[in-house]
Amino acid sequence: xxxxxxxxxxxxxxxxxxxxxxxxxxxxxxxxxxxxxxxxxxxxxxxxxxxxxxxxxxxxxxxxxxxxxxxxxxxxxxxxxxxxxxxxxxxxxxxxxxxxxxxxxxxxxxxxxxxxxxxxxxxxxxxxxxxxxxxxxxxxxxxxxxxxxxxxxxxxxxxxxxxxxxxxxxxxxxxxxxxxxxxxxxxxxxxxxxxxxxxxxxxxxxxxxxxxxxxxxxxxxxxxxxxxxxxxxxxxxxxxxxxxxxxxxxxxxxxxxxxxxxxxxxxxxxxxxxxxxxxxxxxxxxxxxxxxxxxxxxxxxxxxxxxxxxxxxxxxxxxxxxxxxxxxxxxxxxxxxxxxxxxxxxxxxxxxxxxxxxxxxxxxxxxxxxxxxxxxxxxxxxxxxxxxxxxxxxxxxxxxxxxxxxxxxxxxxxxxxxxxxxxxxxxxxxxxxxxxxxxxxxxxxxxx
Length: 448
Known about the structure:
It contains eleven helices and 26 strands. It is an alpha/beta fold. The protein has three domains: 2-107 and 239-306, FAD/NAD(P)-binding domain, CATH 3.50.50.60; 110-236, FAD/NAD(P)-binding domain (3-Layer(bba) Sandwich); 323-447, FAD/NAD(P)-binding domain, CATH 3.50.50. Strands 1, 2, 5, 6, 7, 8 and 19 form a seven-stranded mixed beta sheet that branches. The chain has a five-stranded parallel beta sheet with strand order 10-17-11-12-13, covered by helices on one side. The longest helix is centred in the last third of the chain and has 14 residues, at 434-447.
């Protein structure tokens, strides 16, 4: 078969690439090929274990693609012939294309060095519905759960399993949970929230081995301590899924991602790569980055789709701004850009300022929540490099606002004079708006 635009991969990046390509390239035939019959919402996966209790309530629907006329094929691409501009599939089909977008995503790390990694009841957290359904079913009869890795997915799964009465222990090699994303004060508060909810935390220690004969019995830590475990969940991060691209002769960078330019083009002008499998560069430093986020993947998908047939100098991807948030109970934690430790490590001379207020006014309203905003700012020009937030449900959107500020090169003075809308039931007081107050504190420090 022939198609003008072929997309390999049907998760968030592939879906957004297909919808955007259809909008920007009217009349072009678009085919999306994926291995999965049903696609999961990536960020919602931890919540199938406690909040929604089934993967059926965490599905990316195909209705929008069908409505736009996107042709969906459930099959697996086994090879790409970039000279003849075609792909072969597992079912034996050959698909010819004019433009190709690779969105093959990532896969969870299951380290070769870890003894016991293949014992029964050792799990990872992929985006595979069939695997997750089996995993979820097996957990019903398992009580003592040890989660290795306290990044965002690790702590979210821990909190969800704790909700349904499991005995959960998290093991983290860094000095604190979420330590790669947040500065110490925010990470410590997140950790205390998790502990207060009943999750046990072992930090600053790595795992040596998973013990057991045919199934998991315990985890052996590097300090010799043993933790009983009916099940072990490995949440040690993800690596780009690039075997197909590598076999096709596309160039990979030193971290193993497909090399791309600011338009998401690979070394082949008619082949683009987006999402977790494609190269990332940090927005602030320009250095290669390993950041993998669905939100970043969707931004890359839009850029690729808008530049498939004609390049636009304004529709480029300038770099990744790591924007993360999560919630433990009714307290949320967000970060955008560089935290203080990373900024200093990269060589920036920074000033920070934080302010804690309430996200409603008056603060006695029933759903009000403490809201803390911290800004990380370049000393010489007041440019915002990063920010952190602790608060209620508005934390996600407020963290996104800080991301917009970073991307648009705003300074603390720009923030101070920003016009905002407020309402007692929806926002903090205009007289004590934590984002603006934090900017005022930084500005005062810069003048002193």
